[in-house]
Amino acid sequence: EKDAQAMNEMKEVAEDEFSKLRTPWKWAIRKRIWDLMEEKDIALFPRPVHHRIPNFKGADEAAARLVTLPEFKTASYVKVNPDTPQRPVRHLVLQQGKTLHTPQPRLRTGFFSTINMSTLPSLVKIEQCTNSKGVVKYGTPVTLNDKYTVDLVVVGSTAVCPETGARVGKGEGFAELEWGILSLQGNLDAETTLVVTTVHDEQVVDDMKEGVELTKHDVPVDIIVTPTRIIRVPNRKPKPSGVMWDLLSPQKLDSIRVLQQLKREIEEKSGVKLPTGPNEVLPPVASRKN
């Protein structure tokens, strides 16, 4: 009884915290999935998975299934998120001779890096290039105004809807910001560029279908790949294009250098001041002890 009371008190505190953040409904789903993955022991290091893109048992199998997609086979330039569960995807991108395009850690101070094994010394192994240290050491930094075309985007998710492709990440909004910048700069086509996610089967949820309003910057996925199946989303929500400056809080803008640069460049070129979004409480980040 004491345990149940303690759990209820924790739940009330969490709900109170989530209510202060943007889109509280997403936080309810995140917490449910994070708790479930820990309880069912389907989570992998780094743990606990709360406030992360959760790593999961079967991430290798999901990655192996992803590379069977015809759209992966024809892609030569693949953007993959930097989180742990997509490390096997990054490995296979490089192993198959493709160019890996990945954000520098947390996007706070850097932007993106690219890696292609054909340009590195032969002694460098693929596994040395697939974590954040390897990206910094072996990657070629990409600047805001470089010209290139992303053929395929792979994102991590906390939960995803198999009907509409709606997804929730860890709550920091990096996937959306990266998509916004790349589409604005002409590095990807928001209409045609495919978005794929790899997740555990337990992260595929059916309670995001109705009554859920995605914000206009949310990027839905086209294909969901789990360790056991490939789901092609039948009724995908529309994808956004460009940066939604009117949704970008001063707090978020202050924390990401490349957005400040982009805003400055646009305002100098156009002579018009861009709008600013409402203030927000930035979400907590995962403990870095793991």
Task: Please explain how this structure is put together.
- Residues 268-290 are annotated as: Disordered.
- This is Methenyltetrahydrofolate synthase domain-containing protein.
- Keywords: RNA-binding.
- The chain is α/β, with parallel strands linked by helices and 290 residues long.
- It has a domain at 2-39.
- The chain has helices at 2-20, 24-39, 59-66, 70-74, 87-95, 132-138, 174-184, 250-255, 257-270, and strands spanning 77-80, 99-103, 112-115, 140-142, 152-155, 159-160, 167-168, 194-198, 223-225, 230-232.
- The strands form 2 sheets. It has an 8-stranded mixed sheet. A two-stranded antiparallel sheet has the order 6-7.
- The radius of gyration is 19 Å and the shape is globular.
- The two termini are 32 Å apart.
Sum up the structure in keywords.
8-stranded mixed β-sheet, 290 residues
Total beta strands: 10
Rg, nearest Å: 19 Å
Residue share in β-strands: 5-15%
H/E element sequence: HHHHEHEEHEEEEHEEEHH
Task: Name the average pLDDT.
Answer: 90
What's the overall geometry? globular
Range of helix content:
25-40%
Span from first to last CA?
32 Å
Oligomer: single chain
Unreliable sequence segments: none
The number of helical elements comes to: 9
Label the structural class.
alpha/beta
Main sheet: strands, sense, barrel: 8 strands, mixed
Query: How is the largest sheet built, in terms of strand order?
Result: 4-3-2-1-5-8-9-10
